[in-house]
Design a protein that fits this description.
Residues 1-15, 32-41 have a biased composition (Basic and acidic residues). Residues 123-338 form the Polyphosphate kinase-2-related domain. Keywords: Kinase, Transferase. InterPro entries: PPK2-rel_1 (IPR022300), PPK2-related (IPR022488). The chain is of the alpha/beta class. It has a domain at 91-339: 3-Layer(aba) Sandwich (Rossmann fold). Helix content is 48%, strand content 9%. It has a 5-stranded parallel β-sheet, sandwiched between helices. Helix 2 (62-77) runs antiparallel to helix 13. It is globular. It starts with 36 loop residues before the first helix and ends with a helix. Mean pLDDT is 90; it is low at 4-34.
């Protein structure tokens, strides 16, 4: 089970999503009581998206429904001044140590705006998830793997709970990877990963992953260097084949600052309901922070590919990192350009209606 703290409650809703265009006493980033032009713009964009979403199911035409859903997703994306897929994707020359954990690149709103966005976006993620699941039942190989990585207390668990708040658990598989078991150590390091991959039509979320099998020996020297370095090519081959087989891959590294991590660690010690989240090994990893950052930097440089890019997401503000992941997930699903499967050729609707009369 994930150990990350979850300090943001699900936003209250009025109707289905809440009134996206209204706000009372909103606290803006500048601390002033009145709304800024940015706040109003975001509210207007969100309301337009909600209005569009409300029209989707009113059409009997499948192509028209899908077109309206795509348009609503595009409207939601307009909340961002620069799409996260562009702003946060790792590129060579980028340094993880230069990413400021408390920054919110591409998003000019505040926590309240982000929570509204996540609520609306989650409803559309659920729509696309059902669409992909239906296609999987009918033989499509389309599926999605989300890899979540980050230092302890970076918010991985909260991402899963909030982004998938309206999803159907029947099509979502979550797995947290811990220290390999004796059985897992008897196999290739990718063996346990392959067992948890998403089935056709499913979304799999990995809380930590096969990348631990490179970073940990890099930091602690548990394997000879030639062994763990060879894993870079093995991982790239594995992910390339996975993508070619119809599986989209999102790899997300949550960048949390040491100061923010400290706050969450202390919070775990102050709250008896969070004692279970704290382990002394968390401090050992913290003491090796620079070594971890060096190891992760090499991971990004070696394994961020066109088929499976890395996204470095600032995570001190949980609402921001959750909004980013929601945007990346929704647009990835939308860009699959799926349609609802038709009736099987042997099914005659008129004959079925006659028999049911």
């Amino acid at each position: 089970m994930a150990k990350d703290d979850d300090r943001t409650n699900k936003p209250e809703e009025a109707g289905k999503w809440g009134t996206a265009g209204k706000s009372s006493g909103k606290n803006n980033k500048n601390g002033k009581g009145k709304e800024s032009k940015t706040d109003r713009r975001i509210d207007e964009v969100l309301q337009l998206a909600v209005d569009r979403i409300d029209t989707i199911d009113s059409s009997a035409s499948v192509p028209e429904r899908l077109a309206r859903a795509a348009k609503s997703s595009e409207l939601l994306s307009a909340v961002w001044s620069l799409p996260p897929a562009q702003r946060l994707m790792f590129h060579h020359g980028m340094q993880v140590t230069d990413v400021e954990g408390d920054s919110t690149p591409g998003f000019d709103g505040n926590k309240e705006d982000a929570e509204k966005f996540i609520s609306i976006s989650s409803s559309e993620i659920a729509r696309y998830q059902r669409l992909m699941y239906a296609n999987g039942v009918k033989g499509s190989t389309r599926r999605l793997l989300i890899v979540l990585q980050g230092m302890d207390a970076s918010g991985k668990g909260g991402i899963v709970r909030h982004v998938f708040s309206q999803g159907d658990p029947m099509g979502i598989h979550y797995h947290g990877f811990g220290k390999p078991t004796a059985e897992e150590l008897d196999h290739d390091f990718l063996w346990r990963v392959k067992r948890e991959l998403p089935k056709p039509g499913w979304i799999a979320v990995f809380d930590r992953s096969h990348y631990e099998d490179v970073v940990m020996p890099h930091v602690y020297g548990t394997y000879p260097e030639d062994v763990w370095r060879a894993r870079y090519d093995q991982i790239n081959d594995f992910e390339r084949e996975l993508a070619a087989s119809g599986c989209a891959i999102l790899k997300i590294f949550l960048v949390v600052s040491q100061e923010e991590q400290k706050k969450h660690f202390l919070g775990r010690l102050d709250d008896p309901t969070k004692f279970w989240k704290f382990d002394i090994s968390d401090l050992e990893a913290r003491d090796r922070w620079d070594e971890y950052m060096f190891a992760w930097q090499e991971v990004f440089e070696k394994t961020s590919t066109a088929a499976a890019p890395w996204y470095l997401v600032p995570a001190d503000n949980r609402w921001y990192s959750r909004a980013v992941v929601s945007e990346l997930l929704r647009t990835t699903l939308k860009n699959m350009n799926m349609t609802w499967p038709p009736l099987e050729p042997e099914v005659d609707p008129d004959e079925v209606r006659r028999r049911l009369a």
